[in-house]
């Protein structure tokens, strides 16, 4: 259920926080604050986009559908981004499955209201065009990563990305879900996670992962994590 939007302002989504105050307040007037539930599917591929989401302390997995499996993760959206950015291209159909991976708050706005506000705010349009470029670049980076990099390095990258989105050192995730998201066998995830745990980089117990050594995790991660961060810093900041 929607809750008071006044609570949102101190924790604002980074895209919206970058707007001039007038544009920011005007946008908030058309939004509602909602609680996103774990494993809630916000979009299915090919489905009409009814709402646009700006995560606050939640994060959303973007996965492309594959035959006989849940899907291969192509990106994560946290409070640095938005869900529904394809509307910027005049396309109101979701290209990917959007699954809530980290429950929490988000700002939600209907598609008609979003498009109306977008027409009225050149600052919002400029910010979201930049974000669209970043998201496309990161999805392309993920595709290359899935093809060429080893499971342990990809897992380390994924854990770093999730820590960034969750703003926490601890989060809940199963080996089976990780295997689906990374497109590998469950035994490969178990082996990679055990390797990281044996080096005291992470602690993994009953689906709860705690990052103990972020620097060690960055050292294990492939270069794709740094590339993702660099493209965001170069374009958005």
Name the features.
alpha+beta; 10 strands; 23% strand; Arc Repressor Mutant, subunit A; 3-stranded antiparallel β-sheet; 45% helix; Jelly Rolls; DNA-binding; disordered N terminus; 237 residues
List the helices and strands and how they pair.
Layout: H1 14-17, H2 21-29, E1 32-36, E2 41-43, E3 51-55, E4 59-66, E5 69-77, E6 97-102, E7 104-110, H3 111-120, H4 122-148, H5 151-166, E8 170-172, H6 175-182, H7 186-198, E9 202-205, E10 208-211, H8 214-220, H9 224-236
Antiparallel strand pairs: 1-7, 2-6, 3-7, 4-5, 4-6, 8-10, 9-10
Helix pairs in contact: 4-9, 5-7, 5-8, 6-7
Keywords: DNA-binding, Transcription, Transcription regulation
InterPro entries: cNMP-bd_dom_sf, Env_Response_Regulators, HTH_CRP, RmlC-like_jellyroll, WH_DNA-bd_sf
GO cellular component, one term: cytosol
Task: Tell me what you see in this structure.
By secondary structure, the chain is of the alpha+beta class. It has two domains: 5-145, Jelly Rolls (Sandwich); 150-221, Winged helix-like DNA-binding domain superfamily/Winged helix DNA-binding domain (Arc Repressor Mutant, subunit A), CATH 1.10.10. 45% of the residues lie in helices and 23% in strands. Strand 4 and strand 5 (69-77) form a beta hairpin. Helix 4 (122-148) runs antiparallel to helix 9 (224-236) and helix 6 packs across helix 7. The chain starts with 13 loop residues before the first helix and ends with a helix.
